Amino acid sequence: MLALRPRLASKLSAWLALSPATTILVVVYVGCTAWTVWISMTASRMLPSSTFVGLRQYDALFANERWQISVSNLVVFGVLFMIASLVLGFLLAVAIDQRVRAENVLRSVFLYPFSMSFIVTGLVWQWLLNPTYGIQAVGRGFGFETFRFDWIVRQETVIYCLVIAGVWHAAGLVMAIMLAGLRGIDEDIWKAARVDGLPPWRVYVSIVIPMMGASFATAAVLLATSVVRLYDLSVAMTNGGPGIASEVPAKFVMDHLFERQNIGLATAAATSMLITVAAVVAPWIYIQSRRRRAA
């Protein structure tokens, strides 16, 4: 009986220590998420309303041309951003894994963009891509009068400017994840490949990359969540323009929430984004939990 009292006291102390964080999690995250889902099914406009309208807000949302453009922009950005970041990050990791000189310096240089916020990244690339005083102006200053790089002011190409800035920001993080995976590959595999006379590219494609599935999955999930909540990069670089050519769902939500005073439509869009994130993250969490149980 006496031996149980210290255990009970220890458990009680642990629960008391965790209670503030648990309360915040339940009230702020779970509670606010549930409230958002509820408001998305009401007739709320400038102020929240309790008038239930079912899925009417979602019908209006998916019929909204601006939302359709936002989603299509996000799909284009997400596909190009994730592929380019994974490929470039892996190539940078392979290059650093060759035991190059000043490896620590190179790692810091490649990781430095990720230490900045998307606002700073967006402003930097806005200056670089501005036709008046950016890359185009520098090229013409060197005598190339016909040089043209005005993607950021053209509706059909502005989304690719966001991709360039996003890849520059995220490739360093992917490089760090991939480098950790490469350093976990047994050196005996490389020795056996050299004995068999396999070229390095074949070793990477057939052996190394399949063994780094966990690293690729982790990087892909992190990149995917960044894609869904993309907002500040678009606002800093283009503010959704020209027109709405670089509009993204998060900006759609913020504009309708604070500028157009349409809380119902904004929360419907936010709930749709939440479902998208859950669809991406839930399978990854399930796979990780199965791996831990199997181990």
TrEMBL record:
Residues 71-286 form the ABC transmembrane type-1 domain. The chain crosses the membrane at residues 12-38, 74-97, 109-128, 157-182, 203-228, 263-287. Keywords: Cell membrane, Membrane, Transmembrane, Transmembrane helix, Transport. It is found in: Cell membrane. PROSITE patterns: ABC_TM1. It is a multi-pass membrane protein. Belongs to the binding-protein-dependent transport system permease family. This is Sugar ABC transporter permease. It comes from Alsobacter ponti.
